Amino acid sequence: MTALTFDNIVNSAIFLLFVKGAVLLILIFYAIFALLIIRQVDLMVKTLITPVSPVLKVLAIVNATVAIGLIILVWGVL
């Protein structure tokens, strides 16, 4: 029986699986949040029309695209 040390816990397959799952779950929640931001920006653009509105909409779409792309990247790496 091995002693329960920090090195054994970090090198454990169960711990690594837990960390991978937690990272993916956090990224999925962030992607959902980014998609909600797109909806909120779209409602704001329809309500308050300004010259900056298209820029904000593009930034929201880029944010969501990066979030979804990051999930795909991390899924491939993990």
From TrEMBL:
InterPro entries cross-referenced by the UniProt entry: DUF5657
Keywords in alphabetical order: Membrane, Transmembrane, Transmembrane helix
Pfam families membership: DUF5657
Membrane-spanning segments: 12-38, 58-77
Domain of life: Bacteria
Name of the protein in its database record: Uncharacterized protein
Organism: Candidatus Daviesbacteria bacterium RIFCSPLOWO2_01_FULL_39_12
